[in-house]
Amino acid sequence: MLLNGKRALILGVVNERSIAYGIARQFRDHGARLGFTYAADPIKKRLEPICAELGGELLAPCNVTADEEIATLVETVEKRWGGVDVLVHSIAYANREDLKGRFIDTSRDGFALALDVSAFSLVALCKAFEPLLAPDASVMTLSYYGAGKVVANYNAMGVAKAALECCVRYLAVDLGARGVRINAISAGPVKTMAATAIGGFKTILSRIEEHAPLRRNITIEDVGKAALYLASDLSHGTTGECLFVDSGYNIMGV
Ligand SMILES: NC(=O)c1ccc[n+]([C@@H]2O[C@H](COP(=O)([O-])OP(=O)(O)OC[C@H]3O[C@@H](n4cnc5c(N)ncnc54)[C@H](O)[C@@H]3O)[C@@H](O)[C@H]2O)c1
User: Fold this and answer.
1) Is the dihedral of CA 155, 11, 188, 179 positive or negative?
2) Residue-level pLDDT at 200
3) Does the pLDDT value for residue 149 go beyond 90?
4) H or E, element range at 14
5) What is the pLDDT of residue 199?
6) pTM, full prediction
7) Whose CA is nearest to atom 3 of ligand 1?
8) Beta carbons of 30 and 2 less than 8 angstroms apart
């Protein structure tokens, strides 16, 4: 039991295919107390049975583009738990038209939206939750290979992920003064609701099977296990890092 009694707030489960669901299962299996959030009311219904299945103690709304919703979430969590040991940010969004075609066509609004939801929200959450984070708390977020390399159609989201990974490094310094750690997991492609918005996603999946050292696509369980390492004392000396869980694809050259 690596997380016995730890209070883990998980943002980003929308269904059983969500990467955050794979993370939540590992945390539950290792004794964590779980709390979940949903972005909008229609998602709440879908999340209730998942929250019940995983023994979640808290289910609260939080659209991360709204500061007042983040503030209300902090109040709810403080009342219920008094603090947080693990914070999981597994959230991203870009308009469908910004996930296909030429990157050069990205609109100002589409660019700002992708960066706001997918990168700035991590900063806003860290600031809002800072007073609640336990001295040895662990924060984590989800990134993708497209942060550092050009992936067809990933476009605005690639820029958002680059910003997100950079935010992790800057936040690591601010939070580290209190012993709080923050890291990113760069996950290989997984067929989730968010991924279906990316043009040509099937091609990306088959490329991993053909070219990654492990010659298979990763699962949300694989990501969950890496998240368990980052959430637990096993990664006590690690912060500001980006851990690839991608069957080794990122190491490949020609
Ligand atoms: N699926 C992949 O191939 C893959 C690979 C690497 C990284 N990631 C990242 O993993 C994270 C989780 O995505 P996923 O693939 O599990 O898909 P998902 O669709 O299951 O999860 C995305 C989540 O983001 C939430 N969200 C979107 N806009 C929001 C907002 N304004 N406020 C609050 N929540 C909001 C959705 O409600 C959903 O719960 C994302 O950051 C994604 O970029 C995914």
Assistant:
1) positive
2) 86
3) yes
4) none
5) 81
6) 0.98
7) 189
8) yes
The CATH classification number of 7-247 equals 3.40.50.720
Which residue's CA lies nearest to atom 28 of ligand 1? Answer: 93
CA triple 176-25-59, angle to 5 deg: 75
Closest listed residue to residue 91, CA positions, set 42, 40, 133: 40
Q: pLDDT per residue over 186-198, tens digit each?
A: 999 999 999 988 8
The C-alpha atoms of residue 194 and residue 185 are separated, in whole angstroms, by 16
Look at residue 147 in the predicted model and tell me its pLDDT: 98
For residue 24, the 8-state DSSP code is H
DSSP H stretches of helix in 58-187? 67-81, 108-115, 121-129, 155-176
- The residues annotated as belonging to the active site are 144, 154
Amino acid at 203: T
What are the residue ranges spanned by the domains of the chain? Answer: 7-247
Hey, what are 14's tokens? 């929308």
Query: In what helix (H) or strand (E) does residue 28 lie, and over which residues does it extend?
Result: helix 19-29
Q: What is the CA radius of gyration of the chain?
A: 17
C-alpha 91 – ligand 1 centre gap (Å):
4
Q: What's the whole-number mean pLDDT along residues 1-30?
A: 98
Between CA 160 and CA 166 the distance in angstroms is 10
d(CA 18, CA 24): 10
Question: Could you tell which of 11, 69, 72, 91 is best to mutate to test the pocket of ligand 1, judged by most ligand atoms within 8 Å of the CB?
Answer: 91
As given in the structure block, the two tokens for residue 197 are: 């918005």
137 Cα distance to chain centroid: 16
